[in-house]
């Protein structure tokens, strides 16, 4: 695009204000021009001139004459151009057209093609697809304008590709939302724009198969293959050939067909990675079981376990210990660490690296699975840790047609609330095909077929009325039929199925339908004896399957009575048994049963479940849930704290913070609450939730004053001063630290004195008051000097860190680097901390400035690696920016741009001002070289 050589002025009128953008230019399809929503009648070279100027910006007269009067040169062509410009001025009221000397420009125009490109760049797929029209400038061929025709052909190919990309992105987004029919329509638009588009043709065929339209899919595949052979003389791709084979096979050939699910089952049975989407009770589990009749392993997400890191994975893998990797391997160490086994100490130590931890658990999962399929039920309830392991298995597990299959199920509504899960699914979908199958209620013909299978005879009138009563929901259909037969109200007379409601109803409204299906379950429960109800109530409040002995312990029944009660409930099809453990046949049964347990009985059962789980060594969070429900809050909070500490060791800082929040909600004693808040504040620092961290620190300080303990008052002041420094409130940090030191110094331990002096010195250093800062830091260093108990503490290293900062700010780079190296020597490499990462980062920066390139890169890379292990976005932002500057100074432009782009993504979710400032400095350096990260 040509740019203006100088600032333009007319000498007659001021044109600094851009005209109101109501000039609309349509270029995709038949070109049209509107001014203030009124269609303008432009054609020929006038229209070509306006379109070119609107797209290309300021253009020199000579270029315009070459484009539109290709065979005519000199003053004759320039005269024609003047005439066309005059026509444009008369046709377009307003100051859209701007002519300055030899330069011509159209300003303030809204051009559909440019809007399409802007939406694409921002990832707004729906908006981009909305701008897609037809081919570029259809029918616009001004005479004797060979230059314009050549330009139009080049532009047409470019805009066709961008239009197809927009439609492809919008179709993928719709498909990810389960909107298969809408996605199909978008792919068909792509085919209409370019019938040779392989991606859109594949999309149409694949979605027609998913929607059960096999004949249409086969017709489309054959037609596209014939087009390729006829027009291009080429055979269809392997992907098209495979889709053609799928369309040719009858659904009756699919194994274990389900009524109304034959096509979905066939698609699933031929996909390596698939996701079944549907609401509760719609039949996802049955379809999943048919698609993978003998899974290698099944992971089940449970709402009650969704907050416990790796809980579904631990429970599934613990049942297959015979298949674990051999003793002494890191993978087995990871498994034992996950289960918190007593003999974990006899295995090799596991590095403090979350990515490695996930990979090792993925190895255990792959070993247990072997060549079997992995089934993940209720994916939306998996915790982030288990999700990471499943994602690792999908990316790195075994391949081939028989191995490595993964089938998942999820509820669409629940899935929409899991942004983290959708990010993982999108990433997996980019790596390999992810087949999404949406299943819905059965149609009336499908229900008629199902009824015939259930009752043994065709019942057209009964099926029609049953469909009206249940809306085709499989769970409600099956439950209603079962209940009618148990009551003896469904009977056959003269070959017709009848009920007592036939003479008084048109739509079978009397048959139990939602929300009345709960009432049906409660009624079935009431038919059972007291023993069965007690056993079921005990099981209903548990989030996992229980053995008869466990149910007996919780319910207070004898073991014999418990077995008898469970047999009765199993005969009523309310519960099922797997490997000697009992659970409800459907979540609906469990919820309905649990709702009937209230008051003291509910508290007693929760208390018994907590005791039983504690005796069996269950996860602390599960024990705490039951204790809290039993109103045993004093006993619940220590379990929440233990759960939080375990989650923190697994790098699940957000979940750990939530556990501490729940512990604090149990109203522990003030001294205990102080310790909990201290740990929670550090976790909130990790997750960069500064607002919540400030509230925790303010409460911490209030508790310290209430307790009247100088050591606790100092601890609260230390943490509040550190927060103030990080938020650039340096004066506030100095005030908090020094006022506290003055008030209670005489009774403080050396460690607390050193910490307060350190915080004051750090804040003074940030104010560039280096002399006073070094005085305070020197006093702190004396308290932690060699020979003192604190000489090897992190506090000693932190003091050296800030002394290095002061030296660096004063321009003494060598002394600064020496201080940072000394600080690093005081920090153990085996114990990753925020302070160690910051020290590595600073040292690498100063070594870069000193030209010590090799060691600088080594320290910066190690800092970035450890920041990822700590899962700290603010620290990663600092490290990525420093690495970007190192690469830029070395002339590695592509690496610098890539690191800057990664840092920008982190910056969008970070509140750390230091990181943002460092990134801004890097971006400015790139901008000075004419570079912009993408």
Automatic annotation (TrEMBL):
Keywords: ATP-binding, Nucleotide-binding
Protein name: Bacterial transcriptional activator domain-containing protein
PANTHER family: TESTICULAR SOLUBLE ADENYLYL CYCLASE (PTHR16305), TRANSCRIPTIONAL ACTIVATOR DOMAIN (PTHR16305:SF35)
Taxonomic source organism: Deinococcus rubellus
Recorded superkingdom: Bacteria
Bacterial transcriptional activator domain location: 111-247
Claim: Cytoplasm is one of the keywords in the record: no
